[in-house]
């Protein structure tokens, strides 16, 4: 099934496939021509040699008759079979000519095989490239919820190691397969022409070889599955350990990490060893079967030469043919076990590609990508929104409601602060607004349009998000600011940098906006990184702004700069602000207290303090 799927993907390359077919046919024709030419040379030399032992001047028939009359029937059979002309000797002109043709055939054959291997290699590499691209595209279209239950290690293994494995297993197979199949078919035609008895001897070994191959492959398969699962676990472990290196060191947990690592590598080694031992043990078995087949061919062939049915050259050619026959058969059978490893990887990749996707990122031109009156920040309505994350517990999946029939109105251009205890569902609300998840019931409307009916890219295209997770990538400051907005000009970038106070520290850097910052903003301070992500949000001229704990622990001067930058952004947008530190949201137009997935109170800071409810308790606990 998986193999058929892979072959279907290769059929994109029709021209290359046709070239491989032509080259493989030519290669096989040349391969078979070799032993036939060699048989001709041996027959010339053999007939020439025995012709000197016969009386000169006789024809072959006369010499044979004379030998029979002398009672030397066996020798007569050999002379007749060889077609020796008495006294003729070896015709070296013919021998040299045949040798020259033979060498030419071998040289052209080698060139054709090289060309075929190169074409197949290019073809499989291109197919793997396409597969990688398809996976990457697919991953970006998969719902965020999928990644909640899968580890990064699992994704990394599929995108890199599994594809490499498919490539390294199938590439040699596809190089050998066309030539092998054509060789087997051609030999099944040529061999019976020389001797059907010897052909039967060779054919008798096929079922034995196939049964041995299938048995070994079946046994190897579950161990390859274990091997790839262990590889995935190992990648996840490395990913986790390196990401948490500081915490590991501080808690002195290196020993524990090391012993867990050793356990996983031991699992991996065990599974690989067993899988490879099955895959490796098939070859000696096949070699024994083949050796027995050669021996039988040689004995039966010798008897046929003695009976004059075959010439020495023909037997020699047949022995070569039987070797040519068993070689690809053995190669393919030996590959059957290794193939299991490739099929396991292919199955894992296919399972990923079969995961359902969200709507396509490309926006249909007929679908409007904007909401309501475009020149104003939109109003946002959460209407009886209900939502639960899928959680897996001991293999079972269950839905636990996090947001329950939540209703909230955010007027155009307003700033709404969402506050509440930890785990209340504040971040979840912003995730729903950005359509990272969809509600199980109810609706979120932007300017009256339900966002569920709009393409996700349209929803996200109007929004910007600034969180504590200040993701920066290795590149220039300008590139980091323009991230997600490829059309942004240098003037746009600099304007955003000015408004977000990034310019102040960029001006102190020798390379200014072209300063390369390392992965995750290495070489910048926390506050500077935060300011860059605010500039990034500004470049897109968003209409909706989501701030999730955007101001974290920085010095009070930097915090002031961040506050000012965010205020500039908030003036142009409808903003949803998730905050723990209530000092940062005192001026919000509406403060909504969310508890257990519902809004329990809402109003301005002053109103809520006056009602003496939950907010007032939270506020007082922070400031009094
Ligand atoms: N991806 C997820 N998969 C499963 N459950 C999740 C996921 N994200 C959050 N949750 C759960 O949903 C609930 C609400 O989480 P959410 O992050 O919205 O809370 P919060 O109010 O923002 O909390 P905090 O103030 O601590 O950030 C929590 O119980 C959390 O464990």
Automatic annotation (TrEMBL):
Domain of life: Bacteria
Any GO molecular function: ATP binding
Keywords, comma-separated and alphabetical: ATP-binding, Membrane, Nucleotide-binding, Transmembrane, Transmembrane helix
Ranges for domain ABC transmembrane type-1: 18-341
UniProt xrefs under CDD domains: ABC_6TM_Tm288_like
Membrane-spanning segments: 20-42, 94-115, 173-194, 200-217
Keyword Repeat: no
Topology in membrane: Multi-pass membrane protein
Stretches assigned to the ABC transporter domain: 380-621
Name of the featured protein: ATP-binding cassette subfamily B protein
Subcellular location per the Swiss-Prot or TrEMBL entry: Cell membrane
GO cellular component, one term: plasma membrane
Organism: Williamsia limnetica
């Amino acid at each position: 099934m998986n193999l058929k799927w892979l072959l279907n993907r290769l059929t994109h390359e029709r021209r290359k496939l046709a070239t491989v077919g032509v080259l493989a046919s030519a290669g096989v024709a040349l391969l078979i021509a070799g032993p036939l030419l060699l048989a001709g040379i041996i027959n010339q030399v053999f007939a020439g040699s025995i012709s000197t032992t016969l009386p000169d001047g006789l024809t072959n028939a006369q010499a044979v008759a004379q030998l029979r009359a002398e009672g030397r029937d066996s020798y007569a059979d050999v002379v007749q079979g060889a077609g020796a002309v008495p006294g003729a000797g070896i015709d070296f002109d013919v021998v040299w000519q045949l040798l020259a043709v033979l060498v030419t055939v071998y040289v052209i054959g080698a060139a054709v095989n090289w060309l075929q291997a190169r074409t197949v290699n290019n073809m499989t590499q291109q197919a793997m490239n396409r597969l990688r691209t398809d996976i990457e595209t697919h991953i970006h279209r998969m719902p965020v919820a999928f990644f909640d239950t899968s580890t990064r290690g699992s994704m990394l293994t599929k995108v890199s190691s599994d594809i490499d494995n498919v490539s390294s297993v199938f590439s040699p197979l596809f190089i050998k397969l066309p030539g092998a199949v054509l060789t087997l078919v051609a030999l099944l035609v040529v061999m019976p022409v020389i001797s059907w008895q010897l052909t039967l001897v060779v054919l008798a070994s096929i079922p034995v070889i196939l049964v041995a191959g299938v048995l070994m492959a079946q046994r190897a398969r579950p161990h390859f599955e274990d091997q790839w699962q262990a590889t995935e676990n190992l990648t996840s472990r490395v990913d986790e350990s390196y990401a948490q290196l500081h915490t590991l060191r501080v808690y002195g947990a290196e020993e524990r990490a090391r012993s867990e690592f050793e356990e996983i590598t031991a699992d991996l080694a065990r599974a690989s060893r067993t899988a490879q031992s099955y895959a490796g043990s098939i070859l000696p078995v096949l070699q024994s079967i083949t050796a027995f087949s050669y021996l039988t061919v040689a004995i039966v062939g010798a008897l046929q030469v003695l009976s004059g049915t075959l010439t020495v050259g023909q037997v020699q050619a047949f022995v070569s043919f039987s070797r040519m026959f068993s070689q690809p058969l053995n190669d393919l059978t030996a590959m059957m076990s290794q193939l299991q490893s490739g099929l396991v990887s292919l199955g894992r990749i296919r399972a990923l590609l079969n995961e359902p996707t969200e709507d396509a990122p490309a926006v249909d031109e007929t679908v409007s990508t904007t909401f309501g009156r475009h020149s104003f920040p939109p109003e946002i309505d959460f209407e009886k929104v209900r939502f639960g994350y899928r959680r897996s517990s001991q293999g079972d999946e269950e839905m636990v409601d996090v947001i329950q029939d939540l209703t909230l109105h955010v007027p155009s251009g307003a700033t709404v602060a969402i506050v509440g205890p930890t785990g209340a569902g504040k971040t979840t609300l912003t995730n729903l607004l950005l359509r990272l998840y969809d509600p199980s019931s109810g609706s979120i409307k932007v300017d009256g349009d339900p966002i569920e009916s709009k393409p996700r890219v349209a929803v996200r295209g109007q929004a910007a998000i600034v969180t504590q997770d200040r993701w920066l990538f290795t590149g220039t400051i300008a590139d980091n600011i323009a991230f997600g907005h490829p059309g942004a000009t240098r003037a746009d970038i600099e304007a955003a940098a000015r408004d977000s106070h990034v310019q102040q520290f960029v001006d102190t850097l020798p390379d200014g906006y072209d300063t390369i910052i390392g992965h995750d903003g290495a070489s910048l301070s926390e506050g500077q990184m935060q300011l860059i992500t605010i500039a990034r949000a500004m470049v897109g001229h968003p209409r909706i702004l989501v701030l999730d704990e955007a101001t974290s622990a920085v010095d009070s001067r930097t915090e002031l700069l961040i506050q000012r930058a965010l205020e500039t952004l908030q003036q142009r947008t409808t903003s949803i602000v998730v905050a723990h530190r209530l000092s940062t949201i005192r001026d919000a137009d509406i403060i909504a207290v969310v508890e257990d997935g519902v809004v329990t109170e809402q109003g301005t800071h002053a109103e809520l303090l006056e009602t003496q409810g939950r907010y007032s308790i939270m506020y007082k606990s922070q400031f009094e």
